[in-house]
Amino acid sequence: MRKPVKYRIAFLIVAAVCFYVGTLFLPATLPEITFSLKSIWANTQWRNTLLVTLAYFVFLPVLYYFWIIQIGKQALWKLLLIISLSSLVARYNYPEQLAYYFEFITYLKYPIIAVLMVIEILLLVTIVKALWGLESSLATREFTCWNNTKAIMFMKKAQKKQRS
């Protein structure tokens, strides 16, 4: 198995475990507190939510960058995939006080799918054109070679007739 494939499988396992463990640690509701680092860290529910948020939006994207984009030599824009996935998981698993911040994902889902479908169709058309163009150029080259061979044979016959 190639090295990029191993890292993709490893990332898939790490992401699945991270999302699963994150759902276990997230509380159903969050208590009202004053927002300071000291008060967030003192409250267990807020601390767990902060740690899960760091795992979803810092740890996983950084891991994706190094394992998938750098090792697999992928495009940088694909980092948006893991951030979108983390936002989707956050939308459905975070406590209600924070989940509504990720509501925008549901509105963007269909336009993003439409854009991706257009890109895939354009890619498919480009590949098919390239394949047909390659095939027709090969056929033209073979035909040209065949005609050149026939022409050479015809010229040799004509030369033999002139000598005799």
H and E order: HHHHHH
Distance between the ends: 68 Å
Instruction: Please work out how many helical segments DSSP would assign.
Output: 6
**Helix content range of the residues, please?**
over 70%
Silhouette: elongated
Largest sheet: none
How much of the polypeptide forms β-strand, as a percent range?
Answer: under 5%
Q: How would you state the average pLDDT, rounded?
A: 80
The low-pLDDT segments are none
Helix/strand-derived category reads mainly alpha
The tally of beta strands, per DSSP, is: 0
Query: Cα-atom Rg, whole angstroms?
Result: 30 Å
Describe this protein's structure.
It is a single chain. With 164 residues, this protein is mainly α. It is built from 6 helices and no strands. Helix 1 packs antiparallel against helix 3 (44-70) and helix 3 packs antiparallel against helix 4 (79-93). It is elongated.
Write the layout of secondary structure elements.
Blueprint: H1 3-25, H2 37-42, H3 44-70, H4 79-93, H5 96-99, H6 104-163
Helix pairs in contact: 1-3, 3-4
What is the structure about, briefly put?
This protein is mostly helical. The chain has helices spanning 3-25, 37-42, 44-70, 79-93, 96-99, 104-163. The radius of gyration is 30 Å and the shape is elongated.
Characteristic terms for this protein:
164 residues, elongated, 82% helix, mainly alpha
